[in-house]
Write the structure tokens for this entry.
Amino acid sequence: MILEIENLKTYYRIEKGVVKANDGISLSIKENEVVGLAGESGCGKSTLIRTIIRLVPQSAQVTADKMTFMDQDILAMPEKEFRKKILWQGIALVPQSAMNALNPVYRVGDQCTEAIKAHTDYGKAECEQIVKRLFDAVGLQAGMMKAYPHEFSGGMRQRAMIAMSLLLNPALVIMDEPTTGLDVLVQERILRNIKEIRKMSESSVSILLITHDISVIAEMSDRIGIMYAGRLMESAESMELFNEPYHPYTLGLKNAFPSIKAIDRELISIPGSPPNLLEDIPGCLFAFRCPFVIPECEKTRPPDLEIKPGHMVHCIRTDHVEEFRKLAGDKKTWQSSKSAT
Amino acid sequence: MAILEVSDLKQYFYLQPTFLGKLVGGAKPRIIKAVDGVSFSMQHGEILGVAGESGCGKSTCCLAIAKLREPTDGTIRYKEQNISEMSKGEIRNYRREVQLIFQDPYESLNPRYTVFDLVAEPLRALTDKNKTEVRERAHETIAMAGLTPEEYKNRYPHQMSGGERQRVGIAQALVLEPKLVIADEPLSMLDVSIRAGILDLIRDLSERMNFSCIYVSHDLSILSNISERLMIMYLGRIMELGITKEVITEPYHPYAQALIAAVPIPDPAYKRPIPKIKGEVAQPIDPPPGCRFQTRCLQVMDICRGTEPPLKEVKPGHSVACHLY
Amino acid sequence: MKLESIKDFFVTQYGIITSNRFGKFGASIILFFGVVALLAPWIAPHDLWESLRDSNGKLAMLRPPSLEFPLGTTAMGRDILSQMIFATRTTFLIGLVSGLISIVIGANIGLFSAFYGGKIDEILMRFTDIVYGMPFLPFLIVLISLFGRNIWFVIIAICCIVWRTSARVVRSQALAIRQRQFILAAKARGCSNLRIIYGHIMPNILPLLLLYTSFNIAWSVLAEAGASFLGFSDPDNLTWGGILYNLWISGKIRTAWWWFAWPSICIILLVSSLVFISRAYEEVANPRLKQR
């Protein structure tokens, strides 16, 4: 097991109160697995990433029943140790808008070799070999190593960042919205590159892919988790999640996405918006927007049910799922939720 | 009668050479051919989708049609009248009938104006309605955009979510009851779960108010859902134009084929084909003669490098600009 | 703009100014001077030009501060307190009028320059550059030599110079606003150029405008004080600088500390207060400066 997180809570203390950015997240990533986390803005995915790589501000309160990386407790580990041993070598990050993460006054190749040298005692020649190999893997010509960031197009910069993240052979790469803002052909190339890298024999790398684009998640992930308002609403193997969704939010998301293979399908949006995480919401966080809500839902927080092996749902009405799946396809169902009025 | 007829629209930008360049090499100014010969027409009440990647010129086309930028060449005829030859009064009328919905709901609203003032502004600028009429029409339009006027009219942009702001933007565009609405990627900056709602709003209002719509986007999935006809652009030229369903299911142009093959599907079981395309997106600077797609096409022929393929019909209502046909 | 929004405007400005320690201090000083200026004829104990006699009948020349003459007297036996009170009115007026006129000139030049760009921008900015090169005092001297000593010439001379910095600054902020998409949107919605300039760009640079209004008034007060001290002011309209000028020509500057102290302190106080208010606006215009 590469990454194991149980009941992770990250609370931010601000003037007005406490923001429960992550409120009980449990997920695990196996070796050579791609786990996709789908969620919209405000669902807590940035916080989750920052918590994992220890970039949360001092004022944040982080608790978890378990948070281990390759069986090492990374929550209790002192920050210095984490930075030295785990960050970049064990867990690497491809940040959102990676285009802007490169220093514009240094050649890209130099930035890569610097990174390697900072963490290992490889010589210059060895570093360059590694960089060349990875540039090749992401489809960048070796000549681009001598170029400056502004000479790269958006897609090329993103690929360079992916290459950089792999320099030290990490076991886990976290990709935060890797293709958002890129054209579809560029996106396709990058996704294809990622798939090719996974197949390369030397690296068996796991990926935590975080994006709001359900199509990308469907294409890339082995397992998928649906995040909403700081919690995981549902998580399962990709095929199972798409073919047998349980949670109303998942049902809603499925209908909200257009597809060129289903041109005539009616698109249904979920009325309302995510809750304010400052408020103390006793019941289910999705209750306000859920068309299938009952009074019980608003009183107590639903448990994380393992409805089938490997399939978790955060809902108390899973027994009605057959009915819900049928109703979710009808626009009128969604108009009846509290948030629609 | 077509409501809009664009003929051979060209928008060139000239890059002045650097001082050193002029000194040393007598360098000529470089030309960015952002739009290079776009021709199409639109009927009343239709929704035309314009697809293409960044740099294909779709947004530049929008600005020219909305008369926010003078084209370098070509004519745009609105209701059979050339828009470059309009008098001041006719231009005012044009603005009443041709409106824009902008991409960025965070930037396209004046942060100092309340929702009411924002929606009333076009009325105040372009009509002679009195205070009561303005107030009524503004309230009506705010409600039509899906926001309750009482609750929203005194709010400021920073007090609203992206979706709400975009609704205000739509209200602004529709308050004058335009006949042609140009929507420039209105959904790309919104959360995915609310996009469907805004898309529905645009579609419903287009039917109710009977306006034509040019919907520009790089997202083929959205375009496939809302547009009746689809136009695919690359580096300033139209590559393919036809009924959406036909273009998506049976694309003719190699670029269209590659683009459609590249679109991910929300279905893990789907095995997406690899797009038949090579190279990176080129810049529209000093393009070589011939087909714009020649550097990336896997089926490129000699003729493609010399002559520009004309946009011609391969099926009724379906045109392609490619030497393969 | 509706009437209620004008009231709102002042309420907001008051809120902005008093949100900051400096602003509060500055505002109270200015309020104090303003009240004095307003009530001058009623609160001044004596006429400002009257040579007074003390209780013994002697001419009260160069008296240091006492119960009878709280701020002392001048070489001609005039009550400095009364002079200060009346001079407050004049100084305040000159500062306010010059400052307001100059910001109106500067803001408009900046706005039009930024909006139209091209040739108009070139012409206006080159003109501003020329004015930058013009020295204030020689200009004032020329005016006065040609037309005589009059308070209005002082105001005109100050206005002609002080607007230049605000023009530059307003232009650069207006340029930044002009690039933003809501300006393009305003054009698409049919707004005329003037409507865009005054209805859309200007409201967004309001904090900057108010900041520079405050600055311009401060500079005007300083410019006036300097000019008056050197004698280039209207002898009939006494200002704080004018009081200092009288002190200077009497030759008693080394002995009559009181005659020197009060005008100087007031000039410093007023200018500082205006700058403090600018400081409060600066935080609005640039929120990163906000003190935690």
